[in-house]
Amino acid sequence: MKTALIQQRIGSDKALNRQKTRRLIRQAANEGAELVVLQELHDSLYFCQTEDVRNFDLAESIPGEGTEFYAKVAGECRVVLVTSMFERRAAGLYHNTAVVFERDGNIAGKYRKMHIPDDPAYYEKFYFTPGDLGFKPIRTSVGLLGVMVCWDQWYPEAARLMALAGAEVLIYPTAIGYESSDSLAEQERQREAWKTIQRGHAVANGLPVIAVNRTGHEDDPSGKTNGINFWGTSFVAGSQGEILAEGPSDDEWLKVVDIDLQHSENVRRWWPFFRDRRIEAYNDILKRFGD
Questions:
Q1: Known catalytic residue: 157?
Q2: Which of the 8 DSSP states describes residue 200?
Q3: Does the N terminus or the C terminus of the chain have fewer Cβ atoms within 10 A?
Q4: Which pTM value belongs to this model?
């Protein structure tokens, strides 16, 4: 499965962002990509650095103008396309939603982000209602895609449920970066932890993992912080956690990676974790914490 990762810097003009993204998708298709994965909330700056009701104007209905645009791009380029949108479901009800388009431009499916963070400069609970579509892979012409979004990537339960539902690959559009007050050593620990947890999902489930992060500095509109330096480092890990490709931390990047899905079949034969799961002993996983 020839997969393109598109890691970008984002500006304040939605129309210009979309035109740039369309050019990059076309470039990926010309390089042979069958599947193209974009980063989280790629149409706009990462607006969750502040709590501002005016930012709800960025949201769009699904289907709507945004899905029309990307449906046309997917159809023109004949690629399966994973996008990330700020969904207006109803007045006062919004989601962080990944929409997947088939190569004919039709919507193959969508996923609403389930885990919503609320940290300094990441005030997502102000904007997004937790998803209600569950952890269900999206069926496409290139395979069953286990699409989740950013903060979901820290939860082994989410990756496992996608794998148990038949996902052939785990995909995470992402927007994550450095908090300016942290030391360089702490920043590097966080970036390495981010890579390690997702490589762990690959190993534990015998599946490739694709993570596509944004890059570049984005100012805090409130001026209360020094903004976010998004750490890029988009990567593909194979089903044994091996790094197949990795982008830079501080620059844009487009890479087409040939992912061998058959290798997952072999890995699961060598390491039969699913066979040896003790499902009768896992009831406590449904508790918030142990007694």
A1: no
A2: H
A3: C
A4: 0.97
